[in-house]
């Protein structure tokens, strides 16, 4: 049974019906789509780390998936961009300007997502500049606590490595970065998404969609994930590798 079959197992309401329901009420939730039903009254809080040189699709894809997830679950979903250097704006790898970024506050998050960017341009803004500066890796190193899942995709996983969070842990990253991540002590898996419980990583760029859809499925239920795929007209692909610590 592949991941798509597992993801769809137990679905009691088709995505078309769900979309019609959400048009009438954003509070719609299907019977089986309550992965965190016991926490339905508390927001699922997602923070996405931002820095100059960040890859645009790395941060916009998870932002859209998590934001839209709120249409398919009774549990409120809050998504914000945050920066380890305080409230500010950043400029992405291709020049996109993002304003209104909030201060770093992992104690207020259930999920912290770290995108990548600029890995092949060591003299430009991006992952290497952030590692050299040290502020973001130190903030990431101090972030883990019970109840927080730290996730990253593409070369953002190297930022987690610089923070000491991937050493000895199953993980993945962009195919051109895997050798470096392995040399730094990560237990690299050839999977689209690697779920090791409180550490979830994903491969390159577009895999931010898979990362977000998988975490929606894990935290909010299978129905919201399936319905999101229908809304986005995108089918999650690739293998999700999950350890015994994966939920």
TrEMBL record:
Keywords: Signal
Gene3D superfamilies with a match to the protein in the record: 3.40.50.880
InterPro entries assigned to the protein according to its UniProt record, in alphabetical order: Class_I_gatase-like (IPR029062), DJ-1/PfpI (IPR002818), INH-QAR (IPR052158), TAT_signal (IPR006311)
Protein name in the entry: Transcriptional regulator araC family protein
Superkingdom classification of source: Bacteria
Signal peptide: 1-20
Domain (DJ-1/PfpI): residue spans on this chain: 45-216
């Amino acid at each position: 049974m592949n991941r798509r079959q597992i993801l769809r197992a137990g679905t009691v309401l088709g995505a078309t019906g769900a979309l019609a329901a959400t048009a009438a009420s954003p509070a719609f939730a299907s019977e089986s789509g309550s992965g965190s039903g016991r926490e339905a009254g508390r927001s699922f809080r997602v923070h996405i780390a931002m820095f100059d040189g960040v890859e645009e699709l790395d941060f916009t894809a998870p932002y859209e998936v998590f934001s839209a997830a709120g249409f398919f679950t009774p549990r409120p979903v809050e998504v914000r961009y945050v920066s380890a250097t305080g409230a500010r704006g950043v400029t992405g790898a291709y020049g996109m300007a993002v304003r209104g970024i909030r201060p770093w506050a992992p104690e207020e998050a259930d999920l912290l997502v770290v995108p990548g960017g600029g890995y092949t341009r060591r003299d430009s803004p991006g992952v290497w500049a952030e590692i050299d500066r040290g502020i973001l890796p130190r903030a990431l190193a101090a972030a883990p606590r019970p109840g927080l899942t730290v996730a990253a995709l593409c070369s953002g996983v190297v930022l987690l490595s610089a923070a000491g969070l991937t050493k000895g842990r199953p993980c993945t990253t962009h195919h051109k970065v895997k050798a470096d991540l392995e040399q730094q002590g990560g237990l690299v898996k050839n999977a689209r998404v690697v779920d090791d419980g409180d550490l979830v990583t994903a491969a390159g760029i577009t895999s931010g969609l898979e990362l977000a859809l998988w975490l929606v499925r894990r935290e909010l239920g299978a129905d919201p994930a399936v319905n999101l795929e229908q809304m986005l007209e995108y089918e999650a692909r690739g293998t999700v590798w999950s350890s015994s610590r994966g939920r």
